[in-house]
Amino acid sequence: MAKDNQCINKSIAKEVEHGKIIQDIPDIEHNGEMFPLFTVIPPTDCFVCGSKLRPNENYDRFIISSYGIIVCPTTFWICSNEMCKKHHTDKIIGVTGSTNYSDEFIEKQKSVRYGSHCSLWNTRFAGEIFTEGLTDDSGRAPCATTLWKYEQAQGRISCEELSNQKIDFNGKLYIDGYWVKAGWKKYIEAQMGRKFTIKQWKRIRNKIIYVVATEDYVVLDFQITNNMPSYLELIPLLKRIKNRIPEEQILKFVSDEDEAIIGSVKSVFPNVSHSFCVFHQLKNVTKKYLDEFGKIENIPHYNRQIYELATDLILSESVIHLLVHYRNIIEMVSDGIVSKASEKVFEYIKDIY
Question: For 10-47, how does the pLDDT look when each residue is reduced to its tens digit (9 = 90+)?
């Protein structure tokens, strides 16, 4: 630790009076003028008919904030027009609508929630620490349910924004899962613009990010904390897709042979066909031969023919060509003595086609 006199950061210095912390309330811009935070602004005219307003009832609002629990005396107003009688409320600077917490406080809660990877419960606990000791009241914060509802509301808004976008595609949707592991650390850090501590990385390394995309761009992504999820964990992802894109517009799903994807598509889109990515199929077929022979050149001639038929089958442009290649593979496997790799490829093709 450094010795001698140290400069004090006066911007965060606080005054203490009678055992309580005294904090300066900042000024906030409103309609081109600066007002102290939590200033009560009464309405001037009825926003429905433009008539004058008269006070109807006085009440106090208690606002949870980083400056403690702020008591704001406010008024209910009513339109003086007998044909209207619309009710109005005072506006509190820095507080959205009728919420009982300030905007700056919920921003701190969100920073704790997402920046620190906190659970909902721990986020609430941190919020209580923010306000503890500032007033006679004990520390308070929005409960976990309030934060959860806030997140759901933000999710619905995002969903509506996505729904309003035009999606031009040929009826095919592609789903793939990317397993986040140690090799992705630098990539994810670059995308997020910050470094992970060892503890943070251990929390997020074993996750799968499922991506749904058209041929042009990503439609939706979905993070699963279980690195071997069941199909039930992907059903919410497929339901969001169903809410966004009418089922009759989706002609086909394309994915690898992930059992979770296969099961969830069958559950949510039972009438939509599901095919498998050509790249993954070719990769799986080739891998079976490489595991046994090491190189493609080392495959015996008869088994090499089966391998070529399998790749031709996967790349078939029509059902007729596919059936021809499929029958040829069946005949070759049944007529001759084939390698274990060819037997595995035959079983693999039977499962898919």
Answer: 665 667 777 666 777 888 888 888 888 899 988 888 88
Please indicate, yes or no, if residue 59 is contained in any of the structural domains: yes
DSSP state of 132: T
Last residue of a domain, one of 232, 247, 276: 276
The alpha helices in 217-300, defined as continuous H runs, are: 235-244, 259-268, 278-293
Q: In what order do the strands lie in the sheet with 68-79?
A: 53-65, 68-79, 87-89
pLDDT at 68 over 50: yes
Percent of the chain with pLDDT over 70: 80
Length of the chain in residues, anyone? 353
- Cα–Cα dist 278/37, whole Å: 60
Q: Given 3-state DSSP classes, what are the helix, strand and coil percentages for the chain, each rounded to the nearest 5?
A: 45, 25, 35
Dihedral (CA of 129, 132, 134, 138) sign = positive
> What's the CA gap between 27 and 37, in Å, rounded?
6
Q: What is the 3-state secondary structure (H, E, C) of 2-70?
A: CCCCCCCCHHHCCEEECCEEECCCCEEEECCEEEECCCEECCCECCCCCCEEEEEEEEEEEEEECCEEE
SS3 state of residue 257: coil
Please report whether residue 1 resides in a domain. Answer: no
Q: Which whole-number Å values give the CA distances from 220 to 14, 206, 244, in the listed order?
A: 46, 20, 10
Same domain, 145 and 96: no
> Into how many domains does the chain fold?
4
Domain encompassing residue 266: 172-276
pLDDT the model gives residue 1: 47
Radius of gyration from C-alpha coordinates of the chain: 31
Among residues 118, 137, 163, which one ends one of the domains? 163
266 and 185 belong to one structural domain: yes
Same-domain status, 205 and 290: no
**In terms of domains, do 180 and 272 share one?**
yes
pLDDT above 80: residue 179: no
182, part of any domain: yes
Residues 41 and 94 reside in one and the same domain: yes
Instruction: Using alpha carbons, list the distances in angstroms from residue 164 to 94, 167, 240.
Output: 30, 9, 14
